[in-house]
Design a protein that fits this description.
By secondary structure, this protein is mostly helical. The protein contains 13 helices and no strands. It is globular and about 55 Å long.
């Protein structure tokens, strides 16, 4: 494997889909017709792609020894030895600085939020990732910062419903990931021996994670349903038809549960979303229906 390809793999570009959360503000804030806001939103998306890749690189540097013991993560460039610590560290710093520069170009608040994302992930890597349940809340907080960057960072007031749905959805995906990791490492769903891969897994069991997944996915579905019929939502968008997009949301959530429980997925949400035809079709359908309704 060439150095350039190894460095690209280290950046995990398929994970950049997660940074699409920054576009929720312009879409649901009716700012898509403002060229300046659209350009700034694209710049923020790029900024989060850069800093998130810096965070992935930082995590791989810190976890390289543990990754060598994992059945799939041992194939990552640092764990396998395709990239040395020097080039990886240089890439991490360069990505972080480039992302911060882009965010600063958008606004000071955007820079603060991007900086908070980096600091949060440093704290996560430094030890908070070892605390069960808190580890997933911190991951979710990273998504919330993306949403806030796409609202406050662009001068758009954030919707309380938008934040609620974002929180519960990302908690659902986070707990699903932990469940997949637990099964991959132990094969049974028991926490015995799981700490050799991730210390926080000792604080989980398959039963607990199934309950947390059920609660979070239920809150996510109910939260979106309530958002679509809320009086403030109807007044903001000038239509009461957003409820028509609920079937797309429900099907997408149910399909992801099927991918996780029946097909053994869930370990990499971005990969699952990008490779499952049902999830792709549902996402495209939701985006199309939402755009059509919001555009009047």
């Amino acid at each position: 494997m060439t150095m350039a390809r190894a460095l690209l793999r280290l950046m995990r570009p398929h994970q950049w889909i997660k940074n699409g959360f920054v576009f929720l503000g312009p879409v649901f804030g009716h700012a898509w017709n403002d060229p300046k806001t659209v350009v700034e939103a694209l710049a923020l998306f790029a900024a989060f792609c850069l800093v998130s890749s810096a965070v992935y690189t930082m995590n791989d540097i810190a976890d390289r020894d543990a990754d060598r013991l994992h059945p799939t993560k041992r194939l990552r460039p640092l764990a396998r030895g395709d990239v040395g610590l020097g080039p990886a560290s240089a890439l991490c710093v360069a990505l972080a600085l480039a992302g911060a520069a882009l965010a600063a170009w958008v606004s000071l608040s955007a820079l603060v939020l991007v900086g908070a994302y980096v600091v949060l992930n440093i704290a996560y890597s430094a030890g908070l990732k070892h605390v069960a349940i808190l580890d997933v809340f911190i991951i979710s907080a990273g998504f919330m910062l993306r949403i806030l960057a796409g609202t406050i960072g662009l001068g758009i007031p954030p919707s309380k419903w938008l934040l609620l749905c974002g929180l519960t959805l990302t908690l659902f995906l986070g707990f699903s990931k932990r469940r997949a990791e637990l099964l991959t490492v132990t094969g049974t769903g028991d926490s015995d021996g799981a700490s050799s891969h991730r210390a926080s897994l000792d604080g989980y069991s398959r039963t607990l994670l199934d309950v947390l997944i059920t609660v979070s996915v239920s809150c996510s579905a109910i939260g979106y349903a309530l958002y679509s019929v809320d009086a403030e939502t109807i007044a903001l968008h000038g239509t009461d038809k957003l409820i028509l997009t609920l079937p797309f949301v429900l099907y997408g959530l149910f399909r992801y549960l099927q991918v996780m429980y029946v097909k053994g997925g869930g370990g990499d949400p971005a990969w699952d979303v990008l490779h499952d035809p049902h999830v792709i079709a549902t996402t495209v359908g939701w985006l199309g229906a939402t755009a059509w309704i919001l555009s009047g």
